[in-house]
Amino acid sequence: MKSGVGKYRIESVARAAELLCAFLQPPHRFGVTELSNAAGLTKNQTFRILQTLIPLGFVVQDPETKAYRLGPRLISLAAVAVHGSSLVHVAGPVLDQLAEQTGETVILTARLDPYSAICVDKRESTRTLAITARVGAEFALHAGATPKLLLAFSSPEHIEAYLRDRAPLTRFTERTITDPAQLKATLAEIRRQGYVVSVEELDRGVCSIAAPIRDHTGEVVAGVSVAAPTIRQGPDARLATIEAVVWAGREISRRLAEHALGHLGAVPTEGSHVR
């Protein structure tokens, strides 16, 4: 009799997983023969699995060398897995409360790599006219509320490298800041005020407000934001949203610090870096 695990095992899925794991070995780029040997599959099986994974973004083939490597979809999944290990768990109740308080879409975003951010959790608005969000969605760091906030709280060296490597900056709408000097001034203002308001920088008709989330050392590791149609974000509503989002960022930071320090066997003190 098969065990509970073996009973429900799908061999084709298992072979695809084994093939993906083969990429963990250096140099992380292989031809069909190398991959088939590493995964213990035939060349035909390997080729068919690769051709299935490529359109899904899990594997990419170099057009010149014909070698295969892991694709961007796996990077997104890895980022969600890493950040989700504690950040998503700790932030969950606060996201629920923020969504209930504002009635708008709430988004939790973390750094994916030096050039982009990724949505790791969300709470959708239940209103008829609402902004949608997708876990795993990636964003450039120079536009939008939380992405720009994450860039603002990066080191000066990283900001300069981003501006250099991403020049010219992509324009998403007519409100996207693409001038490096203007962007640096905006980033300085974000650091000074401790939150960011982004109006139609990524999508027309969308206003997004974000605040930083800090770990137990005080480093900004993520951001929480509320995204709403601009027609619902007049002066009074915007002020109330800013207050709610800033509170959420500080509350998640506090809980994240307690979670981390609890695992370290320590208790947060009045002198904690979290603020």
Describe this structure in words.
It is a single chain. The chain is an alpha+beta fold and 275 residues long. The protein folds into two domains: 4-70, Orthogonal Bundle (Arc Repressor Mutant, subunit A); 75-263, GAF domain (Beta-Lactamase, 2-Layer Sandwich). It has helices spanning 4-7, 11-21, 32-39, 43-53, 72-102, 145-152, 156-165, 180-193, 235-263; strands at residues 59-61, 68-70, 105-113, 116-123, 138-140, 196-199, 206-214, 220-229. Strands 5-4-3-8-7-6 form a six-stranded antiparallel sheet. Strands 1-2 form a two-stranded antiparallel sheet. A hairpin with a 5-residue loop joins strand 7 (206-214) and strand 8 (220-229). Helix 5 packs across helix 9 (235-263).
Total beta strand runs: 8
Please give the domain count: 2
Major β-sheet strand ordering: 5-4-3-8-7-6
Shape: globular
Q: What is the second-level CATH architecture of the largest domain?
A: 2-Layer Sandwich
Radius of gyration: 22 Å
CATH topology of the largest domain, which one? Beta-Lactamase
Compressed to H and E, one letter per element, the order equals HHHHEEHEEEHHHEEEH
Give the biggest beta sheet: 6 strands, antiparallel
Q: Structural class, from secondary structure content?
A: alpha+beta
CATH C-level name of the largest domain: Alpha Beta
| Share in β-strands | 15-25%
**Unreliable segments of 5+ consecutive residues:** 266-275
| Helix residue percentage | 40-55%
CA-CA gap between termini: 58 Å
The fourth-level CATH homologous superfamily of the largest domain is GAF domain
Task: Give the oligomeric state of the chains in this entry, treating copies of one chain as homo and distinct chains as hetero.
Answer: single chain
Q: What count of helical segments does DSSP give?
A: 9
- Mean pLDDT score, rounded? 89
